[in-house]
Amino acid sequence: MGATKGIMLTLFLAITLFVAIPIEAQPNVGDPIKIAVVGPQGWIQWDGIWVGAKMAQEKINLGPDGIDGTADDGIVVGGVNHLIELKAVDSHAVELNPSAGITELLDALDWGADFVVGGFRTECTAPMRDAFVDYAKNKEATTGYAPLWFIAGASTDELVDCGVYLCGACVRDDYERYKYIFRVTPMNSTTLFKQFALFIRTAILPKYLTKMYGSPVKTYIVAEDLTWDEVMGAVLAGRDWPGCSTITKLGNTLPNPYTTPPNPTSVLGPDCEIVGYKRTSASAPNFAPVFTDIDATGAHLIIHIFSAVTGVDFIKKWRERETHAVCVGINVESQMQEFWDKSEKKCEYETFLASVGTRSPVVPGLTEALWDEYKEKSGDIMTDFFGASQDSTYPIYTFWGAYDALISLDESIEAHGAWPIPTSELIPLIEQTERLGVLGKFAYTGPNPTIDFDLSTAGLQPYPYLEENPTMKGTLHDVYVYGDCLIDAWPSGYVRAQISQWHDGNLEVIRPADQPYSRKYRIPPWMYSLADVDLNFDGKVDMIDVDEAALAFGTHTTHPNWTMDNIEADISGDGKVDIDDVVAVATKYGESVTPWPLE
Question: Do the domains 33-186+361-436 and 190-354+497-509 sit in the same CATH topology, yes or no?
């Protein structure tokens, strides 16, 4: 009897334990969603694209609970789990061999890629794009389903939208052919150009350089000789394209839609005088004669435009010579945190467009967490990819775009509730994207104006080549940007490039100027030793500067008056104006430089 009771008790306990422990539902795994990841293998842009795709793949495939093998794994529609599979595609942009890139891309499409993410270097991305749309059109015609490409890396307007109904080879000009192409990062070259050009015109020149050197400020342009920056350099320099009446873009000869600037001030204003314009080799430039010419012209502003590896050589030469000219522009390599050491710390005071600064909380709690995760995982991910040990690195702009492209697809498909989705339904679904991404609010452009942003609302006069057209959302597939990307404040929150500057090992965001992570713009001390404490830039430190510091006293990163004017008084750069900053100004009280303006 006792034995029977013991057996019964054991069975009861076993059943109780079995019932009490919940069992995770197992996934109902369907066909995978296949994504081809395209980029210049061997360059940092590829590292960003591939690590971004791998990190997003891991997040999606593990699901919200972060546990493998449960019912929320992958993209879940109709109770079916579709895991993400990735295939790497070398665009062969390092050696500029687009034919090889096309071959790899077509292999990935034959593998069954549902989507393509990535693409850097227009010279390769453009012909690959055309081969892709040929494939996609045929696939849709025969099956009703076609892959879509989300460009993450290449900024040339015409890859997605030329903006002027002239190129004949973009989503705007030929929607039925190019409707399969979207861009997720960065914003197009024209908008990038407008951002740093207006920053120069409204801040660098009037607030600093004209006070230091008088007006006009002599300005020198140095740009790598590649397709994506052709228009930027020509417009900045006040020049037309060769032939004047036509331009050649992506293999098309077109009527020139831009009026020849009557003079360089049509872009950068009367405070600027262009004294030199050099286009240098993207692979083997000789910068020594360029800097000799810069010195000879007496330039105090250098607009530099680099996307490839030569940017580090340029900025090292600038610092070694202690050139008496600030550098403002685009330098993709400088977006790396590693650039500080790679340039032997010679990039300090360089100013350029970037996605974020060092751990900038653009979307608090998300952006800096992804920055840290990239730093933790990128070395292992790239070691696995190359089969040889790779150091962990930090994210650049291609990471944010590739990562967010996959996360956005997960959101869109799950919200739609079906997979696969016919192309006739999928494209309108993607066009309606409106979400908070990792770098701000994200949408695609379209032909219907929604908000007519006028520069005059920011107290600015309209400028030729810088006026913002009515912003749009919808069917033109480029990155939607609101007009406040051109001013100091950022009330809309739609994605924009940040303007950053290297400060003592950290990449600090200086525009927009109204964010908790915003910091002051700094003039190199070898150009003006009192620049940090001469707050009104009149060549001396006096009661005006003490008063400005005192008036800003107490403002900090979350204070409503954390604006450009008060940030200038944050001498220490610690995110607050306190007694240390007032003392810093007072310590230099009475000092001055002559002659003023400087020579």
Answer: yes
